[in-house]
């Protein structure tokens, strides 16, 4: 007898079984700690393969991982495109394949876009909890796309800010963001206006040149730097990179993929997983940057969560 055909779990079903990114927090915290524990942590994850699509300004990323603690075996396939002016397609599209680790059978094909949006924001929330200054009052989001929404949702669910500000390259998109989310958001006309005085800053743009300058950043602020995932792309300038304590999800990935890290020559202080394990301090009183690139094990944990919830309901 052959194995059952794989389930297809589309975006709506993923959303239904993962209504809030915060549901992933315990599993993601454990996974980040395991990832930073080397082979003893039971996470098997090579550096992702990212191949350019010549002539189309696009990239295809292949992200396999196995997490022994979750007994989750997945690979995510993600495409991201720089210029989509005349296309209705989102800039990032993803699919996660979930396998049975016991025999390699494909159990499910899951929409990966919702998973990517939520797990990335959840990891930024973990970094924020550890690294933001005490009494943080002002949240600033630079960018108004998919990740801006997921970051806004989890950061305003977990923390209480007196003010939320947004800036986007095209103001219309920032205004649409401000009128769609549930709480008050101030639309700013420049990145500088949004950043000055902010305690927590999130950069979620497709920029390839710095959009955040260290000169604007309040000493002690925490920055989640989520965009700029190519070795020649930047969101943060050298002044910020050189004058912060730099935390990353993966040292290997940061030194291979992050233009902000590679081109600035900034020294990495710790992986987030090391802070979660208690082997490195968090330093919330310092100016901190969490450079996020996205780990395949985060997708494994999130896909397993969705699949288990879906299975229980079907
Ligand atoms: N670290 C991680 O785990 C992940 C990181 N990302 C990255 O996060 C960033 C945001 O992703 P999404 O929200 O899905 O993209 P999106 O396309 O939905 O939104 C991107 C935003 O950036 C703005 N933008 C585009 N080009 C710009 C430029 N040159 N300068 C300033 N702003 C510009 C757009 O107006 C848009 O509001 C991307 O860089 C993406 O690659 C995405 C997924 C996971
Ligand atoms: O981790 C991910 O997923 C991604 N990271 C960088 C940009 C593409 C998607």
Number of helices: 11
- Compute the average pLDDT: 97
Total domains: 2
DSSP strand count: 15
Bound molecules: 1,4-dihydronicotinamide adenine dinucleotide, the ligand O=C(O)C1=NCCCC1
CATH topology of the largest domain: Rossmann fold
Structural class: alpha/beta
> In angstroms, what is the radius of gyration?
19 Å
* Elements, N to C (H/E): EHHEEEEEEHEHEHEHEEHEHHEHEH
CATH class of the largest domain: Alpha Beta
Helix content: 25-40%
Low-confidence stretches: none
Instruction: State the shape.
Output: globular
- Note the beta-strand portion: 15-25%
What is the CA-CA span between the terminal residues? Answer: 22 Å
The CATH homologous superfamily of the largest domain is called NAD(P)-binding Rossmann-like Domain
CATH-scheme architecture of the largest domain: 3-Layer(aba) Sandwich
Main β-sheet, spatial strand arrangement: 10-9-8-11-12-15-13-14
User: What oligomeric state is this?
Assistant: single chain
Enzyme class: oxidoreductase
InterPro entries: NAD(P)-bd_dom_sf, ODC_Mu_crystall, ODC_N
Subcellular location: Cytoplasm
Family: Belongs to the ornithine cyclodeaminase/mu-crystallin family.
Describe the structure.
- One of its GO terms (molecular function) is thyroid hormone binding.
- InterPro entries: NAD(P)-bd_dom_sf, ODC_Mu_crystall, ODC_N.
- It is found in: Cytoplasm.
- Keywords: Cytoplasm, NAD, NADP, Oxidoreductase.
- The protein has helices at about 10-15, 25-35, 115-130, 145-160, 170-180, 190-195, 240, 250-255, 260-265, 270-275, 295-314, and strands at about 5-10, 45, 50-55, 60-65, 70-80, 90-100, 105-110, 140, 165, 185, 200-205, 220-225, 245-250, 270, 290.
- The model has no long low-confidence stretch (mean pLDDT about 95).
- It has about 325 residues and is an alpha/beta fold.
- The protein contains 11 helices and 15 strands.
- α2 runs antiparallel to α11.
- An 8-stranded parallel β-sheet has the order 10-9-8-11-12-15-13-14. Strands 1, 2, 3, 4, 5, 6 and 7 form a 7-stranded mixed β-sheet that branches.
- It folds into 2 domains: about 5-115 and about 295-314, ornithine cyclodeaminase, domain 1 (2-Layer Sandwich), CATH 3.30.1780; about 130-295, NAD(P)-binding Rossmann-like Domain (Rossmann fold), CATH 3.40.50.
- The protein starts with 6 loop residues before the first strand and ends with a helix.
- The longest helix has 19 residues, at about 115-130.
- It binds 1,4-dihydronicotinamide adenine dinucleotide (NAI) and the ligand O=C(O)C1=NCCCC1.
